[in-house]
């Protein structure tokens, strides 16, 4: 029956081979993390094996509900969302709506970051505003909304508006003009919570009329409170009641800048985590090699003890070699004596002597 035991020296050799392989993997991981030429190769491809374009019939997730009939989206376009050199924000939005797993990971990380910001802001003390301090002396003059000079006209890309939903007012922005859209709803808009919708220019004009910012006859609630405080002589500053649990957290990055920052930060975190795991693996295997070497027979001896032992073995080997040489010479002499005696007896028996 063959033995399955492994001698200590072989175990050390196997551990060293495993450590060398782990070091190679760690160096390759660090190279991929820092080498610019490896960025494109490290792009997470989500739709590599897909060949047919995405349509309203085969779309998945929320994209199936909003994709117009007859519209086709190539899978290669969705992969542009994760190009580390030139990430495409609109491709990311479509990929997220189609249920991409990598987009889901990015969104979850984004919401974690935003929640941490909200918690930090809620814990920090808020300084008193000058307008709140001077609320008692503020005159009740009508306040009109003054749009900035650079604000785009209604319906143009970048135009901002507000719309009332069941959950309250939400800010929206025109992000795309789609001339081929059906029903006149050719303005693609996105809200602060990440939801998207198609509206027409007339819809945007109607929303502008209903927006409290554009209705100068209806002052805001904060102005009413200031007027009442001024009338009663109270000068207490308004105290915010929003907490981290009630503060608004957007569903997805709202701008291209936010998305690019998120993508690079997430990739950096993943590279750091991978490097840490590789380093931990190397350290564990290195410690295993040290333990195996320390447990080898004779490893508890000092260098001088090892040298003395080696010299002792050399002397024993030399003594054994001399004894072997003497035995060989004796055997050779006896062989010659036997041959000589045999020759003499043979010659005498044959009468040749």
Q: How many helices in DSSP terms?
A: 10
> What's the mean pLDDT score?
74
Binned, the helix content reads 40-55%
Largest sheet: 4 strands, antiparallel
Region (Disordered): 224-244
Pfam family, one: Med21
Family: Belongs to the Mediator complex subunit 21 family.
Biased composition (Polar residues): 228-244
Walk me through the structure.
With about 350 residues, the chain is of the alpha+beta class. The chain contains 10 helices and 4 strands. It has 3 domains: about 140 residues, no CATH class; about 120 residues, no CATH class; about 50 residues. The protein is about 50% helix and about 5% strand. A 4-stranded antiparallel β-sheet has the order 1-2-3-4, covered by helices on one side. Strand 1 and strand 2 form a beta hairpin. Helix 1 packs antiparallel against helix 9. The radius of gyration is 42 Å and the shape is elongated. Its main location: nucleus.
